[in-house]
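Treating backbone geometry as a discrete language has practical consequences that deserve illustration. Part of our work consisted of pairing the sequence of a single chain with a tokenised description of its backbone. What the numbers capture is local backbone geometry rather than side-chain detail. For completeness, the protein is quoted in full, as a sequence line and a line of structure tokens:
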Amino acid sequence: MPTMILVNLPVKDLARSKAFYNFLGYSTNPFFEDENATNAIISDTIVLMLLAEPYFKTFSGKELVDTTTAAEAILVITADTREGVDALADRAIAAGAGPSKDPEGHPSMYIRNFADPDGHLFQVFWMDPSAIPPTDS
């Protein structure tokens, strides 16, 4: 099994969250879905686990962040092109997301930001691969 990243996010309304992420083009695996949880498959190795807020608290044992006034993380999703950044960000806004910052454009990089219906922050990011210097390895 490849190394995966599963991001657990607390949500207020599972059905709304599932509809939002499905509208963005992400599928759901029904095997990992019940009255407390659903999911959004971002890629073969990245999955958002969308957990009803009371259920999420059983994992953390902590109070939830009020996403209207505080941020705990920004989740970044890459796109293959600048147009891909716009397409995903525009779909998110059409599905009920709110913009969280103005777009950031540079000659070799482009970022759009949005907040999902529960206020979780996302960036859609493109970078020109030729602008990335080689690593020393």
Notes: DSSP finds three helices and seven strands in the chain.
